[in-house]
Amino acid sequence: MTGIYPSPDSEEFRLDIKKLAEIRDNLIELSSSDVPLKKLIALKDKGDSLVINLTAYADSVLSTDTENPEYLKASAAAEEAAVSYQRAEDAFIRAAAGRREEFSDPSLADYRKYLSDILIEESHLMSAEEEALAAELSRSGSSAWERLMQNVTATVSRGGRTLTELRLLASDHDRAVRQMAYQEEIALLEEHKTALAASLNGVKGTVLLLERKRGWNDPLDRFLFASAIDGKILDGLISAIVDSLPVFRKYFEIKARLLGLDKLDFFDLFAPVGNASKAYSFDEARRIVVSSYSSFSPEMGAFAESAFDSGWIDAEPRKGKAGGAYDVFFPIAKESRVFCNFDGSYDSVATIAHELGHAYHDSVVRDLPPSLSSYPMTLAETASIFGEMLVFDSVLSSAGKDEALAVIEAFVQSAAQVIVDIYSRFLFERSVFEERKSGEISADRLSELMLSAQEKSYGDALGIKHKYMWAVKSHYYSADFSYYNYPYAFGELFALSLYSRKDEKGFSDTYKHVLRCTGMMQASDAAMTAGEDITDAGFWKRGIDVIADYIERLGRWS
């Protein structure tokens, strides 16, 4: 991380915070002048790059050690700077929306979506005073609730194991170990459910209030806009998911037979299948990812090699480190970093491929300004899933029967999470927003809603379920990322449909062009650059059919 800033208390970090304040004041001043719109956009891009760089750095170092006082201080400083900068963003949106006569400037041709979005954003702004107050209150409101959830889940422990360590045991070969870890996790979350429920209520209550004040009918409407899709596309996606549930329930039955069980319980979902489920060293993971990427595109392979060589990947699990995995891009340095918790499983190898897929996507658009490179969450998952598939194909091509069983099952297992579990998360979040309108929701009621959503998604194919999944999914606790669940399903099926064409001559260039367009076009338009129509139900079914074929193959082994 020293390539981004020497340290959180470095002079460089402090100077950039000061520089951001100067840009903020300048942008506010120029927004009320007659400076050309193109110049105003350029200044906004400069400020956006700084605020992304500062907050991404501070949040990243904090996730590596969530109780480090130096990191906490830097995170607070970056957040304060970002909150203050929102006043300039607000002024810019109002000013740009008032200059529609400049939208036809030929030099702004690439900014058509950006400018169109500004008009929509401007129509959903509160008054300048209200927006400024909302931004200030977020630091002690929704953002504080989010930090509480992160701190609780990252630091609590039971039996000498952190929550992150317990969750990693979900993929242990021994069912007794998996069951013990599940029970310990449930008990641990039971102990802290009141604080976690308060956090979730605080975030969702804030979102509902602000979206209503801004004129959105529902938080989902705003997120559809942010996702660069419309309700018709989402309905088509959800319909395809619902139609696919019998296929996935068949998979759960197959997995139960492969494990010698009558029925799966939640703690069996991530169990490895087959005798050849090997453990991978980090060096092996590197070799697999680099060679897999190179087989599709030498450019992608070289990028992955450089990421490993440059030490961009923080892989080891450790106390105080947050759970999960993510990629983060720093627009000033034009570099990415990958955060994960590597445990030697095939899934961990696939996770590195997933996050490096995001990083490759970042590299494709790194020379573009934030106004043209900030892609929606729906399309953000495309490159990551594509990267996973490259690793899957590579490992499978040289696997014996036992290893092939393990690898295929791991792929279908992941797909089931992205389709089936994501559907339960979508249903859960929708029900939470609906009930939160009437008041706070108790921890026990949140668990009831979670179990109800899982029942609709998994059905009878899953016995014991996980009533506290609401307490461990960080996306629920971000006021800026409501409904951050279906983009994974979108990305999975979108990527699988594209991936089915990977052997076409010149497709690596087509694929790269799609990624290049993700920040400049609606999702449907970006897909159309590859000749794909995402309003067609057949498009989504094509992706599901890829998964279904592997489920059939698993069935022959059971």
On the 0-100 scale, what is the average pLDDT? 94
Q: What helical percentage do the residues reach?
A: 55-70%
Side-by-side strand order of the widest sheet: 3-5-4
The overall strand count is 5
Terminal residue distance: 47 Å
Instruction: Report the total helices.
Output: 23
CATH architecture of the domain at 11-140: Up-down Bundle
Estimated structural class: mainly alpha
Q: What can be said about the biggest beta sheet? A: 3 strands, mixed
Describe the fold and architecture.
- Helices cover 67% and strands 3% of the residues.
- The protein is built from 23 helices and five strands.
- The protein has helices at residues 11-31, 37-64, 69-97, 112-123, 128-140, 142-155, 163-168, 175-191, 193-213, 219-226, 231-258, 282-296, 298-309, 346-364, 370-373, 377-397, 401-436, 443-458, 469-472, 486-499, 507-517, 523-528, 537-557; strands at residues 157-158, 161-162, 313-314, 326-330, 335-339.
- The protein has a three-stranded mixed sheet, with helices on both faces.
- Helix 1 packs parallel to helix 3 and helix 11 (231-258) crosses helix 17 (401-436).
- The longest helix has 36 residues, at 401-436.
- The mean pLDDT is 94.
